[in-house]
Amino acid sequence: MSNRAPLNVKPEKKRKQKKKVRGLEWTADDSGLVSAGMDGGVYEYSIIQEGHRVSDLVHKGTQFTSVTVYTDPMSGENTMYVVLLELGFTTN
Q1: pTM of the model
Q2: How far does CA 7 lie from the centroid of its chain?
Q3: CA–CA separation, 72 vs 77, rounded Å?
Q4: Confidence band, pLDDT 50/70/90 cuts, at residue 26
Q5: Of the residues 2, 27, 49, 91, which has the maximum number of CB atoms within 10 A of its CB?
Q6: How confident is the model at residue 77 (pLDDT cuts 50, 70, 90)?
Q7: CA-CA distance, 85 to 28, in Å (whole number)?
Q8: Which has the closest alpha carbon to 21: 40, 49, 5, 48?
């Protein structure tokens, strides 16, 4: 028995990164990959679930330049930390 949907059913439209990806980070157990991009999107993908996205955050108007992931050793939950590009920042 196949788990595939009938051909006449369109798959759900998913958000994806529309501008350059600037940061990629593996989870502590290498079962997930997190990307952050210049479009303000942070996406977590499960490698175990054939690359399906398991979480996302999109903050339009923000440009993320890097990402890191902390995996809680007790719960196994991932927390993503992102760095954003601040436009117009000047120093004296």
Answers
A1: 0.70
A2: 28
A3: 5
A4: very high
A5: 27
A6: confident
A7: 25
A8: 40
Contact in structure between 34 and 57 (CB atoms under 8 Å): no
What percent of the chain has pLDDT above 90?
A: 23
Residue 50, SS3 per DSSP: coil
Please give the Cα distance from 66 to 80 (Å, whole number): 10
Q: Say if CB 34 and CB 22 are below 8 A apart.
A: no
- Cβ-proximal residues to 39 (8 Å cutoff; 6+ apart), any chain: 17, 18, 19, 58, 60, 63
Question: How many degrees, rounded to 5, is the angle at CA 49 between CA 39 and CA 1?
Answer: 130
Strand ranges in 1-92 using DSSP code E only, listed in sequence order: 21-26, 32-37, 41-46, 52-58, 64-71, 78-84
The Cα 74–Cα 69 span in angstroms is 15
Domain locations in the chain as residue ranges = 21-84
State both tokens at 17: 């990164």
> In this predicted structure, what is the pLDDT of residue 85?
77
